[in-house]
Write a structure and sequence with these properties.
This protein is an alpha+beta fold. It is built from 15 helices and nine strands. It binds serine (SER).
Amino acid sequence: MASLNDIRSTFLDYFKRNGHQVVASSPLVPRNDPTLMFTNSGMVQFKNLFLGLEHRDYKRATTAQKCVRAGGKHNDLDNVGYTARHHTFFEMLGNFSFGDYFKEDAIPFAWELITRDFGIDKSRLLATVYHTDDEAHALWKKVGVPEDRIIRIATSDNFWQMGPTGPCGPCTEIFYDHGDHIWGGPPGSADEDGDRFIEIWNVVFMQNEQFADGTMRPLDMQSIDTGMGLERIGALLQGKHDNYDTDLMRALIEASAHASSVDPDGPKNIHHRVIADHLRSCSFLIADGVMPSNEGRGYVLRRIMRRAMRHAHLLGTKDPMMHKLVPALVTQMGQAYPELGRAQALITETLKLEEERFRTTLDRGLKLLEDELAQLPDGQALPGEAAFKLYDTFGFPLDLTQDALREKGRAVDTSGFDAAMDAQKAKARAAWSGSGEAADAAIWFDL
Ligand code: SER
């Protein structure tokens, strides 16, 4: 069975053979884009090439890109662990053309790689195209996809945008049909959200630039940006339906099971899954220079860390646990991402310190939460002030509280939470009597 490491190499090798430069993943903190919190797609490091603002000595590239989706437009945090295919951290495999080849090569490349090199059964594949894109439709027909398996989609699902601004364009997506024993309809149908038809590859025809006022301009050159989730294609090629059953994720789940002495497949499996996912995002973020803090990127990291730490606590571990899993992660991914090994000591120390600190308030916070819930009628949301107290006094990020309540089928009154937060900020502003610089300035000028 090909491992995720093998599958990554097969992808990169295929495009290397076809004239693409293998480019290293860019860091998770985008260097060229202040509008983005984290790198969330393979094209981020190439944004300015698509826009014609930057030129490099290659026109074709291929990457395995580290991505985090935990904040901003593409945010998967709340679903992680509970579903088969959500991650805060994942790897996106991609091939890119900067004004070189366009649809006429991108579609045959994708088809050849998945049906020949990956050996996926052709009869299980479907393609979607943007409803007006006759060219893409004809190209799929040409490679041999029957017409009833090429679906025209009129929605934004087949028009990819980076965000409110930036390069964008129509796309074609490749789906795999897992068979009629699994519920779900084909893309575009009423029950498309089922699990039967799974999107495996998105090929974007970059041809426009989107502006904040909603207008668009055609780009000077036509380019290609593709994205295939390694965990997803890995699950498919390993005959699994759940990304967390792939060899790499399984190794992390087993490390969590070992460190906690809790059965990896028992009723507490969900905690191992969350931990395995969050271990990856936290470690890679720290390796790329993000440190836990109370604002911006650092706060997103802290939220993910604390969320994982609550799940470690639910496994019944008495001592900090996350840092013990770092060696397993480095074994799995350190070769493809050498920065992980270089930062191993920092990752270990940061995870350990944060967990030690958080454990001092975690128990008391959870006790407060239990007490609050005991007083509430069944099904009623937790009042915003209680969630705010958990945040302010016990260091519980709001999504941690929401995650804890999810198991009990309850929600948080988030508008009450926001109101409590605003009230506290107003109080802090009213109490602010200046930082002292004004007084210093008066003394200075007197002198
Ligand atoms: N940018 C596209 C995506 O994120 C293809 O890579 O899906």
